[in-house]
Every structure is written in C-alpha cells, then in structure tokens.
Amino acid sequence: MASKSTADVPRRIGELIEAIDRHSRLYYLEDAPEISDTEWDRLLRELQALEEAHPELLRPDSPSQRVGAPPAEGFAEVRHRVPMLSLANAKNADEMREFDERMKRELGDEIEIGDEAEISYVGEPKLDGAGIELVYEKGLLTVGTTRGDGQTGEDVTANLKQAGSIPLRLRGTAPDRISIRGEVALPVKAFKRLNAARLERGLEPFANPRNAAAGSLRQLHDIDLERLRSLEFRAYDLKENIPEGVLTQMQVLEQLRSWGFIVSEDSELCADIDAVVDYHRRMIEGRNDQRVEIDGIVIKLNRLDQQEELGTLSRSPRWAIAFKFPPQQAHTVIEDIEASVGRTGALTPVARLRPVHVGGVIVSNASLHNQDEIDRKDVRIGDTVIVQRAGDVIPQVVKVIKSKRPKRAKKWKLPKHCPVCNDPTVRLEGEVVTRCTNIDCPAQLKNNVRHLASRGALDVEGLGEKRVDQLVEQGLLRRLSDLFSLDRNALLSLERMGEKSADNLLAGLEKAKDTTLARFLIALGIQHVGETVAELMAAHFGDLDPLMAATQEDLEAIEGVGTIIAESVARFFADERNAGEVARLRELGLRWQKAEPRRPGEGTLSGTTFVLTGTLVNMSRAVAKQRIQNAGGKVTSSVSKKTDYVVAGADPGSKLSQAQELKLAILDEAGLEKLLAG
Q: How far apart are CA 379 and CA 384, in angstroms?
C-alpha cells in the first residue's frame, strides 16, 4: 500500500468503510457481488492497517469492529425497559373487520371527522424471522437482545454485530438513548446458498429460513459467520424518547430509514379496513417475490396517540394485529425415493413426487433430508403426503396420510453402496448423515478440489469454480492428487485456456506445495477437521506420519478432539485409498516444516490460565485461544481466583467486572501479543 499523508488518512478510512459496507451488503444481502473475495479482503486489510497505525481514528462503526467471535460463555439476560409483546392473529377478512369495529368502539370520542383524526392503518409485511431489540446510546449500538419471554431477552450483541444490515452507528441525529425493534430474517437466496454449502460439507440443511435466522443468534461455539453476515434486519418500531414530530407509524418508518435501517418497502398506509383487506390480497399474490419469507401482514393504527390511548393487554397490544396468510401446502403421491450424492459424499434421500401445484409453482421433488427423518415420519414409496413450500425453498414432506397408504408399501432405506461409484457407505456414530467415503467419487471430486484450493487450505491462485469444473469434466482430474501432476500442454488443450492462464495456474500450484501441516490436513477434506482441529493435531503430533499411525484413542486424548472427530480422522487414514492419495501428494512435492510435538502444558505459558472476553481486533477469539494453548496455557470460560489473566477486547461484558473485583491481571490485545512473544 502506498504511503499516505496524515491528512489523507481520515478520508481514506472513510472511503474504505463506505466501500466495504457497500460490498458486504451486495454480497450477503443482495446476492449481487461486484468484487472478488480477494479484493474485499484487500480492502479490509488496508483499513485494518490504517487503523493500527492511527488508533485515534478507529471508528465504532468500522467494519473491522464486526470481525471476531462472540463470547464463549452463556448469554447474559437483559430486561426490556418496554416489554416486547406478541401479536393477536386474524385469519380472515371477517376477523379483521371485527378488529376495525373494536378500534372504533374503544376509541369512541377520540374519533372526529377530519383527515388528522380519523382511524387509518399501516400495513407491513410480517417477516418470518426472529424479533430483536437494539439499544443505541449517543448514536452507537450498545446492546442487542432477543425477544425472550417478552420481559427478558438474551444479550446477543456480539452475534448481531456481524450482520451488515445493522448499523453500528446511527446516521444523523438521534436521542441520547433509543430502542429500535425489528426482525432478523434470512433472505431466501442466502438461505439457498447456505444450504447448498452445508450439503456439500455433508451437513444437514437448515429446515427453513426462520429457524436458520433465529438459531444464528444463539451460537456460542463454531460460529457460522457466513450465516450471521447474511442476516437481514428490518426495523419497524422504536421505543423510548421518540423524536419530536414523529406522530404516526408511517413517520416512525421514515425516521428509522433516515437512521440507516432497512425498512420494508411494501409497507403501506391504508385509509380504512377495505384498504387493509385489499393490501392483504395483494401481498398474498406477491409473497413468493419477496426477498425474505413473509407469513402475513401486520396492521397497526397509524396515529401514535391512538396507540397510546388503547394501550396493551398482558401479552399483546390492543392497537395491532397480524393478518396471517394461508399455508402453502398440497397433497400428492410419492412415486419413488432416490439417493442423491452430494459433493462431499453425503447421501440425501429425495422423494420423486407426482407433480403438484404448491405456492404458485409445479413441484416434483422434495428433500427427505436423512434416514432418521424418513424413519420418524415413516415415509414409503406410494404414500400420499402433504408437501409444503415456503418462498422458493426446496419443498418438504410435512406429513404422511397413512389412511391412504397402499397395502404393500415397503419401508425405504439408504443404500449400503454409493449409487455413483458403488463404494460402501458409512454412517459415523453420532451423525445423521450417511456418506460415501471414496474421495475419488465423481460426485464429490469437484468440491474436494475446490476445498483444497480455498484460502483456508492450500490457497491455490487461479483455480476458480469454473476452472475446477472444466478440469474434472475434461478428464484431467480423476482424483485429488492429479491436480499437482497437471502439465502445460494438457492445460493448453482446454477451451479458453491461454498460455498466461496456464502458466499462472501452474505457478499457483507450485507455490501451494510449500504449506503447513495444519493447512495440509484441512486440504484433505477430512470430515469435522477445520482450522482449530487441524492446528490441535499438528501441534500435538508435529508431523503427519505419527498422526496417520495414531489410533482413535490416541486422537481422543488430545484436548479439544472428541469421539466423533477422532473416529472420522482414524477412519480416513485407515482407508488405503486415502493413504495412497496422501502418499502421492507428498511424492508430488507437497511439504511442510516439521515441528517438535507439543503436549498440553508445555511452553512459555505453562501453568497459566486465561479467560477471553470481548471482541479482539487483529485475531479471532478462536485463534487467540489456540495461540495460548500452543504456548502451554489453558483457556477457560469463567473467571475465578485461579485465573491468571483476563484478556479484554471491545465490549468485554461482565467478565471484566469480575476480574476487576478479584484484582486479577487484565491484558488488552497488545499485552497478550507481548506475552505470547515471550
């Protein structure tokens, strides 16, 4: 990066913040990226470098403040100053007209003739997500909580800060303290993208966008940052210190939009109950065109003084109601069940349906997810079933109508051999997924190559998704190790492969051969082996040969490696073909620096206990924990008199107060780095 004058730095930081936020929104929320991941990373690294060199210019709303993992302890409880109530429901137009009559009756003398006094309503899409509250003090986000029981929610601030749709700082002016209410939802396109990635990794897909969104807020371990960053928060209400001049719900929405929040564009002012019914009809017609799933509309009195006049019941406001949509379900017959093989070898049973209209489209397939799901619902070929489709998400079998079951309908089981390569299938203890273990299975080779080339593994430049598809489809790659035996002439025979592209790819492959043991383990694509586990095993064994010779019991002895992971690793290396691929990769030049095996408790921090709290800037909490453990230290989740150091990042929470009360040593990130350096 070229040097910049001091005067240029604030301007450049502002430009970078604006650019990174824009591109994050394009990628995570609009599925319309304009730059590559590499370019996005470059922008973030430039911003972090400038902030490190000029800490006085670090802004609370900087994208760098979204980076990091949330606290590892349980979530603290937060009591809502104003309860977060649920809504009463209306199922049809008659019930909505009853609601309208009740509003007029209860307001009574408050209703006068004239545009400013008559009853009007605001209709808003009812998102199928999770309600949250955001509290801003002096314009900065201080706490984000779940709805909980309406009186008390859970502090999920750290997770919510990962969502790019939530402003860390409000635009313009705002009261010293303001409470924003809204819903977090997972856009349908993001839901499909995340589920496709989960299936490729052999994981069970999310059941629906709502569960995926709500579940993301309560992650404590193995944080799914991709899911959190894909969340869309839509604001619809504000409490405490409502600004002067904001007198109606429509003005509330405009105020929220001016502060930088996403507000549903389909919100509409309805002059009377007939307009409400018409709004409901139009929203049903367009429900499948929405970015996020909606399951109805919410109708509120527009005037805030009328809302205040009516007040609330114990669980719901009197002045608002949810006008629900009918479910998107249909009856059909399962004509066959087939096992689809994912690119990581996961076998997914798919029901082939008699085509039926559901939610405006013709449906002919439905996922049955796994064998446990089939057994639980007792799904058989020939069954009449209820299928459900939400948005444009893959349909699911909701229920079997057993009264219509054919007499000779047989139970269905996943095959014992892969339907693609005919190798045996296995199901590891504790898993719901049955998979093909042949890493050369054509159904999974493309994904294995892409995984090997990813940034977290060998980071091969010039090997994108389309190029991988081309290499496999043209027969140049029949197994993983073939990647490092590619020659220039073979590459030049490919369509749209010029000399420069071929040379760049070969150079990238040569560079990737010089790696670390942990990255090599990640590149192999062993089930359940990610960055943390790979680092643990690399530190414990020091080299590959003793790791390959280790038994499941040896692996389980490593702190942080449980039974499922140990079984997966032992099974992988016990397979002769996998061992052969590893040997060939080493023969083709993949190499790493050997290290002395390190057992827990050895190192410069031997005998010391750490607690991590808050968000660190230059490393994730997981990386900090790993580095401490690599140096012989121990990381625990709770503060006690036995704690030697508490490492406090941004937004540290209650652990910092506990450490101060116990007069423990407190380190910032720089202090931890100094300690790790010995």
A: 9
The pLDDT assigned to 117 comes to: 47
In terms of domains, do 281 and 306 share one? yes
Sorted by sequence, the CB contacts under 8 Å of residue 36 that are 6+ apart come out as: none
Same domain, 165 and 269: yes
> Cα–Cα distance between 291 and 125 in angstroms, integer?
11
Asked if residue 368 belongs to a domain, the reply is: yes
**Could you say which of 463, 480, 512 is where a domain stops?**
512
Number of domains present in the structure of the chain: 6
| Any domain includes 651 | yes
- Which residues are CB-contacts of 15 (< 8 A; sequence separation ≥ 6)? none
Residue 511 bears catalytic tag:
no
Whether residues 289 and 355 share a domain: the answer is: no
Run of H or E including 508: helix 499-512
Quick one: which of 403, 339, 332 has its CA closest to 368? 339
β-partners of residue 380 are 411
8 Å CB contact between 303 and 199: no
The CATH number of whichever domain residue 534 belongs to comes to 1.10.150.20
Catalytic residue among 4, 91, 104, 126: 126
DSSP secondary structure of 358-413: ETTEEEEEEE--SHHHHHHHT-BTT-EEEEE--TTSPPEEEEE-GGG--TT--B--
Is 486 in the same domain as 635?
Answer: no
Q: What is the CB-side half-sphere exposure of residue 230 using CA atoms within 13 A?
A: 25
Tokens of 635: 């990381």
Whether residue 505 sits in one domain with residue 392: no
CATH (domain of 625): 3.40.50.10190
pLDDT tens digits for range 29-71 = 555 566 655 567 678 878 888 888 888 888 877 887 764 333 3
What residue numbers bound the domain in which 201 lies? Answer: 89-324
Establish how many alpha carbons lie within 13 A of residue 68's alpha carbon, considering only the half-sphere containing its beta carbon: 28
Clarify whether residues 349 and 375 are in a common domain. Answer: yes
Nearest to 173 by CA among 216, 133, 139, 201: 139
**Phi and psi angles of residue 122, each rounded to the nearest 5 degrees, phi first:** -115, 125
pTM check: above 0.70: no
Q: Among candidates 441, 407, 409, which has minimal Cα distance to 422? A: 441
List all residues 6 or more positions away from 461 whose beta carbon is below 8 Å from its beta carbon: 504, 505, 507, 508, 511
**Cβ atoms within 10 Å of 33's Cβ, excluding its own:** 14
Interstrand relation of 177-185 and 232-239 (parallel, antiparallel or unpaired): antiparallel
Span 450-488, pLDDT tens digits: 889 988 889 898 888 888 888 988 889 988 999 999 999
CB 189 within 8 Å of CB 251: no
246 domain residue, yes or no: yes
Based on the fold, state whether residues 38 and 17 are members of the same structural domain: yes
Tell me the pairing of strands 645-648 and 609-613. parallel
Pairwise CA distance, residues 74 & 88, whole Å = 32
* Mean pLDDT within 560-565: 80
- Torsion sign, CA atoms 584, 589, 593, 594: positive
Give the total residue count for the chain.
678
Does 430 map to a domain? no
Q: How far apart are CA 350 and CA 394, in angstroms?
A: 11
Give the integer Cα–Cα distance in Å for 434 and 204.
11
Residue 177, pLDDT > 90, answer yes
For 37-71, the DSSP string reads HHHHHHHHHHHHHHHHH-GGG--TT-GGGG-SPPP
Residue with tokens 């692996």: 555
Q: Do both 254 and 369 map to the same domain?
A: no
- Collapse the DSSP code of 333 into the 3-class scheme (helix H, G, I; strand E, B; otherwise coil) and give the result: strand
655 and 621 Cβ atoms separated by less than 8 Å = no
